[in-house]
Here is the input.
Amino acid sequence: MKELDIDFLVSSSNKNLQGVPGFSFVIAKLQELENCKNNQKSVSLDLYDQWSYLERTKGGFRFTSPVHAIRALYQAILELEEEGGVSKRFKRYTRMHNILVDGMIDMNFKPIDLNGYDGPIITTFHSPKSKNYDFERFYNLLKKRRCVIYPGKLTKADTFRIGTIGYLTETDIHFLLEQIKQSIFWNNSQN
Here is the structure.
């Protein structure tokens, strides 16, 4: 935080930590946090008041504690340590990403070029150019095969996204690739 001159770092318990969604945490410079006192616009999102309540009550929450999410975050941190830390997890995510991209390219899917700003946790692919392609149908075929991809788009281009974060193995990625291969209906009018 010193190197980047960051006052607040806000994150969530899911994503790269692999905990359950629904719990966020903040790492803050104490002086900057104290500057937030009486400067809130929301009762439930009053960061200073939550912090001071945690301090006064030795870990209590102003509202109902997300006990299950906190316990899941604790377990996720243990698993991160067991895996060898952030660098080892990044290597696993990168391995899963590379297997996915190579397999998708073999099936004529093209990853979107993010000019070096891409990472191994989620990959955006251009939708097939076929007039017979329909994302909704493709998505539903994969869902029936126990595979879920991201239906949302973050670009103006016609794309879809596939994540390679979470507790995934090479077997999982190969399974997904096989299900995608079996769900390509636009090249075969029989499906």
